[in-house]
Write a structure and sequence with these properties.
The chain has 177 residues and is mainly beta. 8% of the residues lie in helices and 58% in strands. Strands 1, 3, 4, 6, 8, 9, 10 and 12 form an eight-stranded antiparallel β-sheet that branches. It has a three-stranded antiparallel β-sheet with strand order 5-2-13, with no helix packed on it. A three-stranded antiparallel β-sheet has the order 11-7-14, with no helix packed on it.
Length: 177
């Protein structure tokens, strides 16, 4: 009788479901807006702020301190478990076009650039695929910067221009490294 009880308990222990890992998730956090600073143009011009922070312009005159700078984002991937193996992530990034009107100034972002390896220039709405290598833990992050070209027209007045960039990030695959 005692022998049967032990077998019964062992069988019951096998029926208990194992703890399941959480589902993998990916998110992106905007840490800094794309800032074009303050400048003057008679009627129209362009200002470009690169992902590295370089600022150039055509038919514009900078005004005051240079407050221009790239946007900064951090992608966070939580694989949902603590498996101890190195992996890489294939991620798709899409920047959405932005236009703005502040006072008498109208602007349209016509292109983007980023410091993500292998991506370079992006057009609004264009998808870019990149790889995050060297992930070893449950949570893997990648911080990157985005610059852009702003085409502006001015009817009157002026404005300090900073843009929150709409960004979509989609996980394509987690691959063993």
């Amino acid at each position: 009788m005692r022998y049967r009880s032990l077998i019964g308990l062992a069988g019951a222990a096998l029926l208990v479901p194992a703890a399941q890992a959480a589902a993998p998730t990916i998110s992106v956090r905007a840490e800094q807006d794309l800032r074009f600073g303050t400048f003057f143009t008679d009627t129209a011009g362009t200002r470009t702020v690169s992902a590295t922070g370089a600022v150039t312009g055509t038919a514009i005159v900078p005004v005051g301190a240079n407050t221009a700078g790239p946007a900064q984002f951090t992608i966070t991937y939580d694989r949902g478990n603590n498996a101890n193996r190195t992996y890489a992530l294939q991620v798709q990034l899409i920047m959405t076009g932005v236009s703005l009107k502040v006072g008498g100034v109208t602007g349209v972002l016509s292109s983007f650039d980023t410091d993500l390896p292998g991506v370079g220039t992006l057009l609004p709405g264009q998808a870019a695929v990149f790889t995050i290598n060297g992930c070893r833990r449950q949570i893997c992050t990648q911080t990157f910067r985005v610059g852009g070209r702003l085409d502006v027209t001015r009817a009157n007045g002026g404005a300090a221009l900073a843009l929150a960039l709409p960004l979509t990030v989609v996980l394509i695959a987690e691959v063993p490294a």
